[in-house]
Write a structure and sequence with these properties.
- By secondary structure, this protein is mainly α.
- It has one domain (2-242).
- It is 76% helix and 7% strand.
- It has helices spanning 2-12, 15-89, 97-105, 118-126, 135-153, 155-170, 196-201, 203-242, and strands at residues 174-183, 187-193.
- Strands 1-2 form a two-stranded antiparallel sheet.
Amino acid sequence: MILRRITDAFRKQDWFTVAVETLIVVFGVFIGLQVNNWNAARIEQAQEQEYLIRLKEDFAESVAGQTRDIRFLDQQLSDQAVILKSLKGCAVAPEDSEAFQRGANTLGYINPPRFFRRTVDEMAAAGTIDIIRNDEIKEELAGIVALVEWRSAGFDQTSRLTEHYRFIIEEQVQYNLTRTYADPYLGDFVGVDFDIETLCQNPLTASAVSAISYTTRERQRAYRPILDRFEAFLPMLDESLSKR
């Protein structure tokens, strides 16, 4: 209809009408584009907020999981110290029996870095990382991913090493399935039957436990900075969400 009016105005050389109708068309197109841009920006902001909320949930899980794993490593190191003390004295004190068995049961049990990265992987796959406008959050997120991947890269080698040493101990003990002990990290662990004199007379026993303990401490020291980064990242997400 507008085009017909413009055509009629041209035919009649009614330039004022031509100008007015043209301005109406241009203004209508402009308003339409602005509305589309506003809708797109609103959708993008909503998606950004959803990603930030999900990242917060993932990192809260990551903090809980990594905290638990580090505490488990602390317990393992304590139990391994009991084993080494017992081997050195060739005797297990009654109060150390449970720790000795738990330590033998969990020798070499080390998890990779605990990182819940569902949202990170989804954003990377969809190419929507840049939807997060806060550059500080994007840079810190990239740094955390790089740190976790670096520490994860050596995990398989660590597992193979500890598995080799664990076999040395397993050949000298027996797991007693009729006896279990409660544990905050394992739920329950199976009792271990052993002859301390046989264990302490084999020089490979203490060497194997010592090697595993060294690896356990290395993982503990590697995972603490990861947990620190996780914990520091959560307030950044909270601050960004609070500004919306």
